[in-house]
Write a structure and sequence with these properties.
- A hairpin with a 3-residue loop joins β1 and β2.
- Helix content is 59%, strand content 5%.
- It has one domain.
- α1 runs antiparallel to α2.
- It starts with a helix and ends with a strand.
- Strands 1-2 form a two-stranded antiparallel sheet.
- The protein is built from three helices and two strands, in the order αααββ.
- It is mainly alpha-helical.
């Protein structure tokens, strides 16, 4: 478990540092989703919770992937994930 924590914590910190300059341009749902997943990972390392089973992972893919589908379709001049181009 300690070996895993030594690998996961620096990765989460690196992701947070890499994401930080992009936060003003990202939709709120992406920021919240990342924070929740990182928090879950840190709690899981501390408490020893098991990773979700395959059925729950498949169920979680549905709401997670829905954010990637643009609500108004693919239009020119828009980025589906982040909104409009600047």
């Amino acid at each position: 478990m300690k070996d895993q924590a030594r690998q996961v914590i620096p990765v989460i910190l690196a992701l947070a540092v890499a994401m930080a300059p992009h936060i003003p341009d990202l939709p709120l749902w992406i920021i919240v989703w990342c924070m929740l997943m990182w928090l879950y990972m840190l709690v899981r390392l501390d408490t020893g919770w098991p990773v979700p089973g395959p059925i729950l992972r498949h169920v979680l893919v549905l709401p997670g992937s829905q954010g990637f589908w643009p609500p108004s379709g693919f239009r020119s001049g828009r980025m589906p994930l982040w909104g409009s181009w600047r």
